[in-house]
Amino acid sequence: MPNTELPRETIIEENIITEIPKILERLGTFDSILLVMGKKTRKITGKKILDTLADKGYKLNSVYVQKASHRILERIMKQTKTLNVDLVFGIGGGKNIDMAKALAHFLNIPYISIPTVLSHDGIASDRSVISRGKKKYPILSKPPLAVIADLEILSQAPFRYFASGCGDVISKRTSVLDWQLARDEKGEAYDEEAADLASVSADLIISNAKNYKKDFKTSVRLLTKALINCGFAMQISKSSRPCSGSEHMFCHTLNFLYPKNKALHGEKVALGTYIMSFLHGIDHKEIRNVLKSYKLPVNNKQIKIPKTVLVKALSTAHEIRSDKRYTILKDGIEKNKAKKILKKLKVI
Fold it and tell me: Are residues 169 and 204 in the same domain?
C-alpha cells in the first residue's frame, strides 16, 4: 500500500483503557491532551481515562459535544486556541470522533480514536462529517494515530449500536457493486485492494448473522475489525468509494427530507442496501434476512419514516451528492417506478 498512511496501532482488547499511558509512550512524546466526548461518555469511559492520565502528569482539558456542527467546532477552536494542545482524543460515538478528527485537522496535531459504540465505520477513517445548518460537509483529514477499542466497554453498549455498525458494514456489499459499475460504464478509477477489503468485511458480518448471539463478545471484536478495515479501504483508495454508494445516497437523502427521524446511520444505510441489492440484481432476500437477524429495519414502520418520504428519497437520491457519484441509481428512478419497487420489496 504505497503512500498510504494508516494508524500506527489498532488495539482491540478487554480493559485496554487502563493501558493508555503505556500506549502513549510507544506513540510519541505528548504533554497536553484535549479529550472530546459527550456527557454520557464521560460517565461511561471519559472519567476513567481522565483519572488514568492525570495520575501520569498529563495536562488535560475536556470539551463536551452535543452534535458535530460547524458552529460547535468554531466554539471549541476558540476555547482551545491558547491551550497548546498536542494530541486530541475522540471518545464515544460518531459525533465525538468526527469532532476530534476535525479539531486535530485544523490544529494540525494527531488524534486517537477511542470508540465506546460501534454504530458506523468512522472509527478508523480519515474523514469526518460536520453539519452546517441542514447540510453536512465532509472534512478530509489524517487517519487516527491509533484506534483503542476496549472490548469490555463496547460489549456493554446498547445492542442497537452494534446492529447499526453491522448495517454500515453490510452496506459495502452494494457500495462496491456501484464502484464496479462506475468503472465498467464510466471508466472511473477502481482500486481492487480497497474494494476487496470492503467486500470481505461485508461478507464476514453477513456470515455472522446467525452466530452473533452464541458468543457476543467475539462478534463485537469481529465487527470492530470490520469497521476498522472499512476505514483502511477508504484510506487505501483515498476515497469513500469502497464504502459509500447508492445506499448511502439514499440515507443522506432521508436525512435531508426527514431530519426529525431518529434512526441511526447504519439503520438507514442497511435499509438502503436492501433496496439497492434488488436494483443490482443480487440476492436481496438474503440481505433482508440478514437485516432481520440483526433487528435492523426493513420497512417504513420499523424505520419510522412516512411512505411518501421513502418514495421521494429513492427517486431523488441520485441528486444528493454535488459530485454526481455514478451508481445503480444512474440518472434517477421515476417516482411511480420507485413506489412500485418499494411495494414489491415490502418496504412500504
Answer: yes
CATH code of the domain containing 111: 3.40.50.1970
Cβ distance 249 to 325 under 8 Å?
yes
How sure is the predictor about 302, in pLDDT bands with cuts at 50, 70 and 90? very high
| Structural domain span for residue 199 | 160-344
pLDDT digits (tens, 9 = 90+) for 79-132: 887 888 999 999 998 889 988 999 999 889 999 999 999 988 889 988 887 777
Q: Do residues 235 and 130 lie in contact, with contact meaning Cβ atoms separated by under 8 Å?
A: no
Count helices and strands (H / E) in the chain. Answer: 16, 8
- Name every residue whose Cβ is closer than 8 Å to that of residue 177 and which is 6 or more positions away in sequence: 245, 276, 280, 282, 328
Quick check: 287 and 274 in contact, CB under 8 A? yes
- Cβ atoms of 89 and 64 within 8 Å: the answer is no
Residues 16 and 139 in one domain: yes
Distance CA 299, CA 310 (A): 10
